[in-house]
Amino acid sequence: MEINPQHSFSVVQPARNWPGVRAFCTTREGGLGTAPFDTFNLGLGAGDTPEVVLANRQLLNRALPAEPAWLKQVHGVRVVDADDSTIFASNLNAPEADASVTTCPERVLAVLTADCLSVVLSDDRGSVLGAAHAGWKGLAWGVLEETLALMLRKQPKGSGWRAWIGPGIGAAAFQVGADVRDAFSTELAIQPDLCVVDPSVAERWRLDLAGIAQLRLHRMGVQDVELSHRCTVSNPKQFFSYRRDRQAGRMATVAWMASQKS
Asked: I need a labelling partner for 160 at 20 to 30 A (CA). Which of 85, 123, 225, 234 fits?
């Protein structure tokens, strides 16, 4: 299956420019596909026809300087070095990890989401880059901390850290039980309003996952944090949502450092 010149897609990107860094999150608009994966599904593990997903990835590649370093995400904290060619020998055999890091210009990092957060990290010079998939488990277990740790190992002089939190489930839609609430007890002791009682269901709370991520980033020393403020659940025309639909495609957040010539 091939993409023709008439096919296109739409994206959400940071509102502020980043020195030396390009990043965006795709939406479900554009590309190919049929319900419930209509139309720009980029996730091979979502249950969609592989040929359609690969055609959509081909369309995505037209907007990128190189093939993305795809991951097999497992809601964990493993972070891989995207500059290690032995790990990324084949994009059809992606490594099990939930984040990746690079110091190479035009090496494209990618994470897939359909309610979980995507978080892009960089220093103020655009000399090291990280991209993380952060659901509540990965966030609670430290995927963002592990991502920044590898970035610092690859670029010890990195400073002036900044982050962009892409579209994800919003606080009004993220109903959780006591187990999820308690996983963020440290953050909620600092900012209790990030988890409030759900007035409609007993013993349930509404958790601000992006707010939790922002607070954790601040505690890590990442002071410049931009939130997209886009809820995947409440925008069915624009975003896939696993919580809303159960069977759904995936958006991709991609990021890369521009070459000196860009």
From this structure: 85
